[in-house]
Design a protein that fits this description.
With 244 residues, this protein is an alpha+beta fold. It has 8 helices and 7 strands. The relative contact order is 0.16.
Length: 244
């Protein structure tokens, strides 16, 4: 699908449908991750979706330095899969994600899988459900297919970057520390309008995620570079790992 030019959102939507036939989940969220600075760059939810009031809480937990099983931490450690049931009780007790989102929703099992290709993280998925922990067969299946999904994600990111128009006006948005828009260029407004048509409210959540990530970049280990750039716009030549 990715080789045929499918974008990330469509790729993930199709993959979520296929994966759900083998691994059941009440809620699932797939994200792309910038492989250089390990910041979430897009979000694709399965159905049903988490209630909107919980999305900012999830964003906050993802960039809290002390939060267990953050996607960025798992990527730094090259940990392909993590389950809530494997989390020590002391970590569970201090988890913002568990106490502020999953517990109020009555969810008690979570699985997170990274999409790693050649040691580089291109995305990840989080799945939650109630009652039954994720089995060894399910985790083995997800671990086996994750590298293929990582390669597909990389191809989809390149496809989207290739299809973007060059030479246009910059899309810039200035936001408050809470992610509230303060100033927007016309090009950024166009991107906002496009995203709102597809998923109302998603742009606001992504700004909150990015603002939270920007506030936290200095508070936890990360790769040496922290230069922000749009996902899919590599500063390297096609011969290196972005292009392989």
């Amino acid at each position: 699908m990715a080789a045929a030019g499918l974008g990330v959102s469509d790729l993930y939507a199709a993959a979520i449908s296929l994966i759900s036939e083998r691994v059941s989940a009440e809620l699932t969220c797939w994200v792309t991750i910038d492989p250089e600075i390990l910041v979430l760059s897009s979000v694709t939810n399965g159905e049903p979706q988490v209630a909107p009031e919980y999305e900012p809480r999830l964003a906050e937990s993802e960039y809290s330095a002390d939060e267990p099983h953050r996607f960025a931490t798992l990527a730094l450690r090259k940990t392909p899969l993590a389950k809530l049931s494997d989390m020590p009780e002391r970590d569970r007790n201090r988890s913002l994600r568990f106490n502020n989102v999953w517990r109020p929703l009555g969810v008690d099992e979570e699985l997170r899988v990274l999409f790693l290709a050649d040691g580089t993280c291109w995305g990840a998925a989080g799945m939650v459900r109630t009652g039954q922990d994720f089995s060894a067969r399910e985790t083995e299946f997800l671990t086996a297919v994750a590298p293929t999904i990582a390669t597909a994600t990389r191809l989809a990111v390149r496809s989207e970057a290739t299809g973007q128009k060059a030479g246009g006006h910059p899309a810039i948005m200035v936001v408050s520390p809470q992610g509230e828009p303060r100033a927007v260029t016309p090009a950024a407004r166009e991107w906002q309008d496009r995203l709102e048509e597809i998923a109302p409210g998603r742009f606001t959540v992504m700004m909150q995620v990015m603002a939270s990530g920007a506030r936290s970049l200095g508070r936890f280990p990360r790769p040496a570079t922290s230069r922000a750039r749009p996902m899919g716009h590599p500063p390297r030549k096609p011969a290196d790992r972005w292009g392989r």
